[in-house]
Amino acid sequence: MKKLLLSCALACACGLAVAAATGEDAKATVEAQTNTLIAELRANQATYAGNPAAFNQFVNSRVAPNMAFDKMAEIALGRHLQSVKAAGKFEAFRDAFRELLIRVYSKSWTEYTNAQISVIGTPTVDQYQRAKVRAQVVNNGQTNQIEFALWYDGGVWKLYDATFSNVSLISGYRTTFDGEIQASGVDALIAKMKTMQ
Fold first, then answer.
1. What is the pLDDT of residues 73-117, one digit of tens each?
2. Range of 17's domain?
3. 67 beta partners
4. Is-contact 102 52, C-beta < 8 A?
């Protein structure tokens, strides 16, 4: 359930172009895009149920462009980042990780067609132009808290992590990937990510 919520949360915030980084705009980003995605699912539930690839395409076109995949890949690689970059494999890792996140998100989001998501309060923006937006998710009688980590990049708020019950999605992947790289190397991890769900 936690992984499902986190993967759902990871992509439910998309960037809105604004003039300056403010907490109000970070909040508005999460609210507007979450509402848009839920509305899309509800309006096309039958289509997406019968054709998951169609929703995957929607996610790729509407959500993925506003996620900070470089930053997510850097965090997920952790202590292996520099060696992976030195080996010229960062782009291949990032691309495989991006596709994994999109697959996981596309699959899990369909469980949230009837969800109600409410942003709690207005976040502050730190010196690195980051904001953490807290939200409450009510779905099928269950209530959970999620925290979205956004980064203001090039005039747009972009999502780079989500935390559920104090567990970071990207940090969770970092732990898994660390073990995989130590055991088999980054090439094997890249190949494995292409089959992970």
1. 999 999 999 999 999 999 999 999 999 998 887 777 777 778 888
2. 2-193
3. 159
4. no
Who contacts 138 (Cβ-Cβ below 8 Å, separation ≥6)? 115, 116, 117, 118
3 state SS of 163: strand
What count of residues does the chain have? 197
Residue 63, token pair as written in the block: 């959500």
Give the domain CATH number at 120.
3.10.450.710
| Cβ count within 10 A of residue 52 | 13
Q: Which phi and psi (to 5°) does residue 71 adopt?
A: -65, -40
Rounded to two decimals, the pTM is 0.84
Residues whose CB is less than 8 angstroms from the CB of residue 48 and which lie 6 or more positions away in sequence, other chains included: 41, 54, 55, 110
Alpha helices in 44-157 (DSSP H): 45-50, 52-62, 69-77, 81-86, 90-109
- Calpha distance 192→197 (Å, rounded): 10
Q: Where in 17-77 does DSSP place strands (E)?
A: none
DSSP-assigned letter for residue 153 = E
Number of domains the chain contains:
1
